[in-house]
Amino acid sequence: MASPAAAADPAVSVCFVVEIDDFDLGAFNSCEGLGCEVVLEQREEGGNNGYVWQLPSRIKFSNIKLTRPITKDTEKVTRWIASMVAGVTRKTGHISAMTVDGTVVARWSLMDVVPVRWQGPSLSVDTPKVATETLEIAHHGFLAAD
């Protein structure tokens, strides 16, 4: 039975389920770079020596890196990337943070998603460790909650 502290914090153990339009890419155990930054332009005003104006100009969205051990879902990622051979089409993406029992803790919807990089496992008999894959995606921002 879970302790009361664990029940009060459902985000103790999460996985990240990723969907890109028609492609359900499965669950990842690591999600990095989910964020944005407001770019500021600095303007100096003549005669005003007290401060420099900091004017917001645009929002930059960082690339998102998703990592997991390789599974059958790895084929879904390579199928999605292979579908782009004829031309890159930007898609809508969803990342859902879920607890072990399937409860969605948070969900982010992303517009204009494209794959930037996929890194498969490094396989070597000299270094036995879990084979992992990393998918990096770029996007043009967040969509309002659906």
Give an overview of the whole structure.
With 146 residues, the protein is mainly beta. It is built from 2 helices and 9 strands. It has a single domain (4-138), classed as Pnp Oxidase, Chain A. It has helices at residues 4-8, 74-82; strands spanning 14-20, 23-28, 30-32, 36-43, 53-61, 64-69, 91-99, 104-119, 132-138. The chain has a 7-stranded antiparallel β-sheet with strand order 2-1-7-8-9-6-3. A two-stranded antiparallel ribbon has the order 4-5. The two termini are 34 Å apart. The mean pLDDT is 88.
Which helices and strands occur, and which strands form pairs?
Elements: H1 4-8, E1 14-20, E2 23-28, E3 30-32, E4 36-43, E5 53-61, E6 64-69, H2 74-82, E7 91-99, E8 104-119, E9 132-138
Antiparallel strand pairs: 1-2, 1-7, 3-6, 4-5, 6-9, 7-8, 8-9
Q: Report on the biggest sheet.
A: 7 strands, antiparallel
The fraction of residues in strands falls at over 45%
Unreliable runs: none
Radius of gyration: 20 Å
| Fraction of residues in H or I helices | under 10%
CATH class: Mainly Beta
What class, by secondary structure content?
mainly beta
How many strands appear in the DSSP assignment?
Answer: 9
N-to-C SSE string, H for helix and E for strand: HEEEEEEHEEE
The domain tally reads 1
Major sheet strand order: 2-1-7-8-9-6-3
What separation lies between the terminal Cα atoms? 34 Å
Tally of alpha and pi helices: 2
CATH architecture: Roll
